[in-house]
Design brief:
The protein is an alpha+beta fold and 459 residues long. It contains 14 helices and eleven strands. The protein folds into three domains: 116 residues, Trigger factor ribosome-binding domain (Alpha-Beta Plaits), CATH 3.30.70.1050; 106 residues, Chitinase A, domain 3 (Roll); 180 residues, Trigger factor, domain 2 (Orthogonal Bundle). Strands 6, 7, 8, 9 and 10 form a five-stranded antiparallel sheet that branches. Strand 1 and strand 2 form a beta hairpin. Helix 8 packs parallel to helix 14 and helix 11 crosses helix 12.
Length: 459
């Protein structure tokens, strides 16, 4: 039986020495050679009739090394399981381990060493004393007005006026690269786009008013569009938005079509279009329902922000030491592809942060018996599928096919585990929120967005 000796090499690191004797590995070695003899395909010998001596001569060294290593790894795995060792990553073989010392012609005792990093013991921060805020965004009448107008445009009918005359006109344009005199460039490729008139710079819109189909203008991107829209156009035209010269490039734009959405009229038909499964009897009921839906969307965002605050508190206020030297070595040597010292140093901060969060969430899950059922995972996957296809505008008609689609997804282990982690993470944050004492605060959308930006900078 293998002899095992452990030695503490640091606060959270150990060295495990494993010594195996001939009685540990020789029976397995001899059995493996016999197995080779039954399968070896050597010219001049019938399969299964190769002399044992020849098999030992040809394969003995590699079979011996494999069996000694297998015996050592089995002893290491058994020791870790028996002692219920809570380790980080995997054991790392010592640099002193030397496979060249393994000699099947002179078997003896062999000792190999492994380094391990242990998970730390720690206590979670007391969330009940943490300063956190649960925001509720004030839904203003202006927000409702804006959403009503958006829905009226979305559910309206497209017409084709003869001339440009409204900031809500949709302009189908052909962009052709040219010089400042309008002469086409030899390497220019025409590019079609569709833009609302109001996307153009306010000072430039007057030049577009009154234009008809097939009319054209010479423009410069920086003149025709403001900052955000200019960047978007430069990207669309495959130009470098970081190069100031790109905004000075000239294009001939030709109006190929004018569109105008005639907004839907307020009334039963419009309300039914927007809320087909509800009985809306008045404009006020319609606005109240819009207010409710906007509030629900905001509540999702504010709850997410609360979770983000709790994440920072748990991560930054929980005192937790890690064996960094061991983890650096594990990052460098313990992966499929070894890393350079520079790569390890670059990856280490984010790796340590993720590892700390994993340890914290594991502790929360274990201490509070947070479980995730298969039904909860399947429901999460169904929501993901419906969200995806709804975003693609493909959620109309019979939805029975979704169950079959989700069943197929669930057979993919990676997808199933991803959804499992999402449900578990949500439950962890629900626990954290329930164990904190957030202060309720009504805030404007602008103030909430500033808070979000501040949190992003902290991440």
């Amino acid at each position: 039986m293998a002899t095992i000796h452990t030695e503490h090499t640091g606060p959270l690191t150990e060295r495990i020495d494993i010594t195996v004797s001939q009685t540990d590995y020789l029976p397995g070695f001899e059995a493996a050679l016999k197995q080779y003899a039954t399968k070896a395909n050597i010219p001049g010998f019938r399969k299964g009739m190769v002399p044992a001596g020849l098999v030992r001569k040809m394969y003995g060294a590699s079979v011996f090394a494999d069996e000694v290593v297998r015996t050592i790894e089995k002893a290491l795995t058994g020791h870790l399981k028996e002692t219920d060792a809570q380790i980080l990553g995997q054991p790392l073989p010592s640099a002193q381990n030397d496979l060249s010392t393994l000699d099947h012609k002179a078997p003896t005792d062999y000792r190999f060493s492994f380094d391990i990093g242990r998970k730390p013991s720690f206590s979670l921060v007391h969330l009940s004393t943490a300063s956190v805020q649960r925001c509720r965004i004030d839904v203003t009448d202006a927000m409702i007005d804006e959403e009503v107008e958006r829905l009226r445009r979305r559910n309206g009918e497209m017409t084709e006026p003869e001339t440009v005359g409204d900031e809500e006109n949709v302009l189908n344009l052909r962009f052709e690269a040219c010089d400042e005199h309008g002469e086409p460039l030899p390497d220019g490729t025409p590019h079609d786009n569709s833009l609302l008139l109001r996307y153009f710079h306010p000072d430039f819109r007057a030049r577009l008013m009154g234009l008809k189909k097939d009319d054209s203008l010479i423009i410069r991107i920086g003149e025709a569009f403001q900052d955000k829209e200019a960047e978007w156009m430069l990207s669309d035209l495959k130009l470098d938005k970081e190069d100031p010269a790109s905004k000075e490039k000239s294009f001939r734009i030709t109006l190929t079509k004018i569109g105008m959405v005639e907004k839907a009229e307020m009334g039963d038909a419009f309300w039914k279009q927007v809320f087909p499964h509800m009985e809306i009897k008045s404009e006020q009921e319609f606005r109240d329902q819009i207010r409710s839906e906007i509030q629900q969307q905001f509540d999702v965002q504010t709850e997410s922000q609360l979770h983000q605050e709790l994440y920072h508190i748990l991560l930054e206020k929980t005192s937790l030491e890690l064996p960094e030297d061991f983890l650096k070595r594990w990052l460098k040597e313990g992966q499929d592809k070894p890393k350079t010292d520079e790569e390890v140093e670059a990856e280490l901060p984010n790796f340590l942060r993720q590892l700390k969060w994993t340890l914290i969430t594991d502790k929360i899950v274990q201490e509070n018996a947070i479980n995730v059922s298969r039904e909860e995972v399947m429901a999460q996957m169904r929501r993901e599928v419906m969200g995806y296809f709804n975003g693609m505008g493909m959620m109309q008609g019979n939805f029975e096919w979704i169950d079959g689609y989700v069943d197929r997804m669930a057979k993919d282990r990676q997808q199933f585990e991803g959804s499992y982690r999402k449900v578990q993470t949500e439950k962890v944050f629900q626990w954290a929120a329930a164990n904190s004492n957030p202060v309720d605060a009504i805030v404007s959308l602008e103030d909430f967005q500033k808070q979000q930006e501040a949190l992003r900078h902290e991440s």
